[in-house]
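[step 3/7] inverse_fold.run input=structure_tokens len=452
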């Protein structure tokens, strides 16, 4: 039963229910107390030790019902009864335990045989929908289907049609077994391949160009939003731990000796010198013109999901003029905020110079040596004055200036692009056209705040 529980834990993880080794041990101990006879008690014992939120409870129940489902073979047609096998039929199928179980209607033996064969065939390792047909056939072969087919062929060759009755019953049983095996493999696909399919789709979306023609498909938009939040949460957890670990520096001899005096000078309690680690302070300045609005939306989602790591986050948006969107984001969330920002300043001719002037007049004093400024835009200013003097001032006042441009670097400086001129006043200027690139760059920003 322990192997079955381990497979069940795998299925839960594939359904995005986190199961740590400690939780798996707790679950095993719980079912050792409750036993396996009462299905409801068994399910509740597992659920109470493994599901940690209402969403996980729903996913747990779905996985439990699918994992422990058992399909019986199709019953005989209505109005007929299963004919008891004759001694001659039993002798004919003596070489095949599966054929004997089918003739006798022993569903428990058939289910056990199918699960044992599934382990040998590696059905639980299914990853793609295209594997279902091959694994179904392999499962049936491991169960002994070839032996049943051989018995059917021998029965058909018997003189005077003596074996036709046995052949017909086994042929019908073979079709029923095939249908049941298909259902079994489909359940295994739902249990174990759902996570792989989701991972493959997330990998594709992480590499999807945000400024591609047509923008982000509405079908993918919610998935990409969820992916951005997952990435941000992963980074927040990673750098929260690193920040705490970095607080242990060299031994503080003076404090250690002072605390050891109560124990006769024996240093039971070690004191470490504490390094003050600044939490990141980020100012995001986003171009929300049509060409880069999608990238701006995902950047803001990413940054606002880093609440545990970021000390201060201010956001500004511009096309022709620049406005602060910090309060709009807090009141409406990222989705609603973008719509409100577009209503206020959208559909204007992009003017980087004028927008930088607005920022300098209203918010330049808020920059200090703890602040990282992140620009997101294509650097196309419609041949207006780019105000490089303000970019120089921002560079001199901030801890770092990072420019994320959705366009390839080969486009920088072409036409009305002044990106190559802005890049001189940036500590980092990179192409950032996908969520994957965005994650790497934000991770570099967070890493710069952690002592090494």
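[step 3/7] decode complete -> sequence:
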């Amino acid at each position: 039963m322990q192997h079955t529980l381990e497979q069940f834990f795998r299925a839960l993880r594939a359904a995005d229910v986190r199961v740590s080794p400690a939780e798996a041990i707790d679950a095993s101990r719980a079912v050792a107390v409750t036993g396996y006879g009462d299905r409801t008690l068994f399910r509740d014992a597992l659920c109470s030790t493994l599901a940690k939120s209402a969403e996980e409870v729903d996913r747990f129940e779905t996985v439990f019902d699918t994992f422990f489902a058992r399909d019986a073979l199709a019953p005989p047609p209505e109005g007929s009864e299963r004919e008891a096998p004759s001694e001659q039929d039993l002798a004919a199928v003596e070489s095949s335990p599966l054929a004997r179980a089918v003739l006798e209607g022993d569903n428990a033996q058939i289910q056990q045989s199918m699960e044992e064969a599934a382990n040998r065939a590696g059905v639980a390792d299914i990853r793609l929908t295209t594997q279902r047909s091959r694994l179904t056939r392999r499962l049936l072969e491991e169960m002994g289907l070839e032996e049943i087919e051989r018995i059917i062929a021998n029965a058909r060759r018997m003189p005077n049609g003596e074996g036709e009755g046995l052949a017909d019953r086994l042929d019908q049983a073979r079709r029923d077994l095939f249908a049941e095996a298909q259902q079994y493999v489909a359940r295994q696909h739902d249990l174990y391949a759902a996570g792989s399919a989701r991972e493959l789709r997330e990998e594709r979306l992480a590499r999807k160009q945000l400024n591609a023609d047509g923008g982000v498909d509405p079908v993918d938009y919610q998935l990409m939003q969820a992916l951005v939040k997952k990435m941000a949460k992963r980074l927040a957890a990673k750098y929260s731990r690193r920040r705490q670990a970095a607080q242990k520096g060299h031994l503080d001899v003076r404090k250690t000796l002072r605390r050891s005096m109560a124990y006769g000078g024996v240093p039971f309690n070690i004191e470490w010198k504490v390094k003050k680690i600044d939490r990141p302070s980020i100012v995001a300045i986003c171009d929300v013109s049509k060409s880069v609005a999608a990238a701006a939306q995902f950047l803001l989602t990413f940054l606002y999901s880093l609440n545990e790591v970021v000390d201060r986050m201010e956001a500004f948006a511009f096309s022709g003029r620049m406005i602060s969107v910090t309060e709009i984001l807090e009141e409406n969330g990222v989705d609603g905020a973008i719509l409100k920002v577009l209503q206020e300043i959208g559909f204007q001719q992009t003017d980087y110079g004028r927008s930088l002037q607005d920022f300098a007049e209203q918010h330049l004093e808020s920059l200090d040596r703890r602040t990282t400024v992140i620009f997101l835009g294509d650097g196309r200013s419609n041949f207006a004055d780019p105000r490089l003097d303000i970019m120089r001032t921002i560079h001199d006042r901030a801890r770092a200036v990072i420019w994320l441009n959705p366009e390839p670097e080969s486009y920088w400086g072409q036409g009305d692009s002044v990106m190559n001129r802005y890049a001189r006043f940036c500590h980092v200027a990179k192409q950032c056209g996908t969520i994957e690139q965005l994650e790497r760059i934000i991770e570099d920003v967070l890493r710069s705040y952690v002592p090494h």
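[step 4/7] annotate
The first strand starts at residue 281 and ends at 287.
The two ends are 47 Å apart (CA to CA).
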